[in-house]
């Protein structure tokens, strides 16, 4: 029986592992097979993670996270979790080929996935002009003409934010009106650096080493044209990775796992959640790492309460034992 099973190897999972391991809880971290390391494995330079004044490449940062977690005794397993039973006092976690794990607590840190356009060149040019995060990458596009795809609030927010850096921001939308709230629309319409490209969808991204343009198709007459740009921000939504816990953990209206206040506590005792999977707004490496810390501290606190409750139970103090677990 493990004290702590951590699912996910992004900044949230590894930070939870560092704290849990240093607390002597000997965590096991199920890292995923092909996607180990999380979202930062798909990017190049990270300039906003504190402690790296010259920046660091995403995969190098995640290698350091792993090294630090392993240094204190975390067991990292490169396998995917396929099924979970989180309801009882003992949690069961099934994996693709490493067998089943039983744990007293589970920290769920599976992140979230930005929706993609589904174009062949999107992955090839990811981190080379194609981005899903204006806060992360806007700084790299100083003085450039760039494009944002999408018509919702987040697309308007990204486009408006990007005008701080870019000389011009095209907002490409497949219809002739936006889904975004009126206040966000008004702000974007009033911004002289933003130009709307209506009734258009991106059907191609061009560029060898870096993005140099888009192929746009008119959604009314089907005609195609080329738009020269130096960067593309895809803002068409984000899906928290929660499918494994549907029916067990409560979700928010935004689709993230519901946690109690600023804690990582879910609706099930002994189950904690951290990182982008609980965060509909900030979704940054440093906020995910902070959230991983919270989850490890909550798990540690819960395990101590569980140990104390077991002692009380042995002494026949059942009601006190139950109250202790309920408050953990
Ligand atoms: C292209 C790009 C660039 C970015 N640049 C920056 C930046 O410059 N600065 C910044 O602060 N943030 C940046 N971000 C955002 C940042 O990557 C995320 O906020 C952060 O990675 C979230 O951490 P997380 O641990 O919650 O989730 P993730 O990093 O998404 O990690 C989730 C982990 O869970 C694993 N997992 C999922 N399902 C399973 C399963 N069934 N079994 C086992 N494991 C599973 C995944 O494989 C992954 O390892 C960027 C994001 C993207 C997409």
Automatic annotation (TrEMBL):
<dbReference type="Pfam" id="PF07992">
    <property type="entry name" value="Pyr_redox_2"/>
</dbReference>
<keyword id="KW-0285">Flavoprotein</keyword>
<keyword id="KW-1015">Disulfide bond</keyword>
<dbReference type="GO" id="GO:0004791">
    <property type="term" value="F:thioredoxin-disulfide reductase (NADPH) activity"/>
</dbReference>
<dbReference type="InterPro" id="IPR023753">
    <property type="entry name" value="FAD/NAD-binding_dom"/>
</dbReference>
<keyword id="KW-0676">Redox-active center</keyword>
<keyword id="KW-0274">FAD</keyword>
<comment type="similarity">
    <text>Belongs to the class-II pyridine nucleotide-disulfide oxidoreductase family.</text>
</comment>
<keyword id="KW-0560">Oxidoreductase</keyword>
<dbReference type="InterPro" id="IPR050097">
    <property type="entry name" value="Ferredoxin-NADP_redctase_2"/>
</dbReference>
<keyword id="KW-0521">NADP</keyword>
<dbReference type="GO" id="GO:0005737">
    <property type="term" value="C:cytoplasm"/>
</dbReference>
<protein>
    <recommendedName>
        <fullName>Thioredoxin reductase</fullName>
        <ecNumber>1.8.1.9</ecNumber>
    </recommendedName>
</protein>
<dbReference type="InterPro" id="IPR008255">
    <property type="entry name" value="Pyr_nucl-diS_OxRdtase_2_AS"/>
</dbReference>
<dbReference type="InterPro" id="IPR005982">
    <property type="entry name" value="Thioredox_Rdtase"/>
</dbReference>
<feature type="domain" description="FAD/NAD(P)-binding">
    <location>
        <begin position="3"/>
        <end position="292"/>
    </location>
</feature>
<comment type="subunit">
    <text>Homodimer.</text>
</comment>
<dbReference type="GO" id="GO:0019430">
    <property type="term" value="P:removal of superoxide radicals"/>
</dbReference>
<dbReference type="InterPro" id="IPR036188">
    <property type="entry name" value="FAD/NAD-bd_sf"/>
</dbReference>
